[in-house]
């Protein structure tokens, strides 16, 4: 029997929480862009359920295709641990995809296109013949495009349609998506460092295997640093002076904290890398709170 606890582990809590904050931030930025202070409960709930379903599908397909690998790398996951059967996992995954598509089709073209692109990319990541997760940068690229760009911009466009009557994107939504692309790509690089043993046994050529843990780690740290820099520069150039200044101060602090934590990571210690991996997600949560708040209230 699938309990809520098992389903939550199947959905992977860290990225699941990121999905929630991305949808909330998209609504806040859409209100700011439209100049409308209105909370459409139905539209928000539909978007949240749609995004959650997409997330469950992508994680479900990944786990269903990697049961043997996960028994080595992530033995606590429901399918690898045997607390969820493959049939149960397949049913949950298919239902999640169908639910997202139905919501998208009944709500708006923006939401439907977002759902279709997300599902296609999630399949390309895990399933043959593409199986992009088996390549050095294919994994990071497809994850970053899907979660970092397609999801937040698709949600923003949908909410903008709800609030102003037409789809569209704002400068703020785009630069936040650029930041997300960088940090999600970095997440994809770092998450494979502790998984070298299982991945190499199964023929995967992740960045951690091809370039080694040290270089992969440096690439991830550098990409996050660049993402912060691009967001701040964009804010200083295109947004108001006060917003630009607040972005500069807050993001210098976040970047300094991140770099300090990066120096303490021991790449030969799976627990140390795991804690640092969690930090990436926490920084993403923080960004999706800090950036919209600065734009919205200033």
TrEMBL record:
Coiled coil: none annotated. The keyword 4Fe-4S does not apply. Its main location: membrane. Keywords: Cell membrane, Membrane, Transferase, Transmembrane, Transmembrane helix. GO terms for cellular component: membrane. Pfam families: UbiA (PF01040). GO terms for molecular function: transferase activity, transferring alkyl or aryl (other than methyl) groups. InterPro entries: UbiA_prenyltransferase, UbiA_sf. Signal peptide: none annotated. It is a multi-pass membrane protein. It is found in: Membrane. The chain crosses the membrane at residues 39-58, 94-120, 132-159, 171-190, 210-236, 242-260. Belongs to the UbiA prenyltransferase family. PANTHER family: HOMOGENTISATE GERANYLGERANYLTRANSFERASE, CHLOROPLASTIC, HOMOGENTISATE SOLANESYLTRANSFERASE, CHLOROPLASTIC. This is Tocopherol phytyltransferase. It comes from Melittangium boletus DSM 14713.
